Amino acid sequence: MNPKRCAACKYLRRRCPKDCIFSPYFPPNDPAKFACIHRIYGAGNVSKMLQQLPEQTRAEAVESLCFEAKCRVDDPVYGCVGIISLLQTQIQNTQNELAKVQAEVAVAQTKLSQNQNSDFM
Amino acid sequence: MRGHEPRSSSSCAACKLLKRRCTPTCIFAPYFRSSDLITFAKVHKVFGASNVSKLLGEVPEEQRQETVNSLAYEAEVRLKDPVYGCIGAIASLQKKMLELQHDLAVARTRLLAHSGGNNHVSPLDNSPELAAFLDLVPYSDLMLLDGSSLDAYLYDLGQPPFV
Questions:
Q1: How many Cβ atoms are within 10 Å of A28's Cβ, its own excluded?
Q2: pLDDT confidence band for B130 (50 / 70 / 90)
Q3: Disulfide engineering: B88 pairs with which of A98, A107, B19, B84, CB 3.0-4.6 Å?
Q4: ipTM of the complex
Q5: B125 burial class (0-12, 13-18, 19+ CB within 10 angstroms)?
Q6: Over pLDDT 70: what percentage of chain B?
Q7: Which residues in chain B are contacts of A76 at CB distance < 8 A?
Q8: For residue B143, how many other CB atoms are within 10 A of its CB?
Q9: Dist. CA A57–CA A63, nearest whole Å
């Protein structure tokens, strides 16, 4: 048994076994991290998700779950999907602007070559 | 006769999956129709029914449909990408945004060069030449500078249903 319980086992008020699936990712000095993830996903779901992943990817999975959980706490209606929508809108706006500027460049190039042709005549 | 809650004529997807009675006050029923078990199954797998119930209880009723839509989208993406979920999508979009901003800066520089280095970019918004050019090139044919189509890119990513 771990001499010091991980944040998850502390929160869940249980013993922290040596092979605790949470302990590598929820150190005891950051209780808010597990609290947030538990609030949105629940300990059981997080445990199942981690168990289904190769060990080397679990740290990344925990970080992304934490980020999404925090987004959901901050914005209960849209969560991180609000960020996706905003980025997609920004991308479309920037693409529109880029197309406009590219069109202006094309027109300017056409004018320039027309002027050059008329100079030769 | 023992008092009991009246049985709903048809269970919602949530109550069907959870194998329980669907009451008229069921919080899931307006948003998880019985014909769409899969959506609730995905949401339940990622978030858990009780967490979803709590989340819905925390938002005003008029925003619950939007909440369910975003939870369903997030669950779908998480199941497709169990490691990164929506964060993978956000990272890709941010990268694309940076690329576009770079391309826009390059294009603006080119435009300045063609306009003789003037700081004032010629106002071609009402230019007949520009209008004619844009008419010849439909938006759907305008591509990102790397040759990819923006619409295809967004489709692959799976645009949220409520945008």
A1: 16
A2: low
A3: B84
A4: 0.83
A5: exposed
A6: 65
A7: 55, 58-59, 67
A8: 14
A9: 10
Contact yes or no for A12/A42 (Cβ under 8 A): no
Distance in angstroms (rounded) separating the CA atoms of residues A28 and A40 = 20
Q: Which residues of chain A have pLDDT under 50?
A: 1
pLDDT at B119 over 50: no
Tell if the CB–CB gap between A104 and B130 is shorter than 8 Å. yes
Residues in chain A, overall count: 121
Give the integer Cα–Cα distance in Å for B130 and A107: 6
What is this structure's pTM? Answer: 0.75
- CB-count burial class (<10 Å; 0-12, 13-18, 19+) for B77: buried
Mutate to test the interface with B, among A38, A84, A94 (most CBs of B within 10 A): A84
Q: Does B109 touch chain A (CB under 8 A)?
A: no
| Interface mutation vs chain B, best among A47, A91, A113, A114, most B CBs within 10 Å | A91
Q: What gap in Å lies between CA B31 and CA B26, rounded to an integer? A: 10
| For residues B51-64, average pLDDT | 96
3-state secondary structure of A38: helix
Q: Can you give the pLDDT at residue B158?
A: 55
In this complex, is the C-beta atom of B52 within 8 Å of any C-beta atom belonging to chain A?
Answer: no
Burial status of residue B18 (CB atoms within 10 A of its CB: 0-12, 13-18, 19 or more): middle
Instruction: With beta carbons less than 8 A apart as the criterion, state whether B40 and A49 touch.
Output: no
Mean pLDDT of B99-122: 79
Place of tokens 């008419």: B135
Could you state, in order of their start, the residue ranges of all structural domains in chain B? 13-80, 84-113+129-157
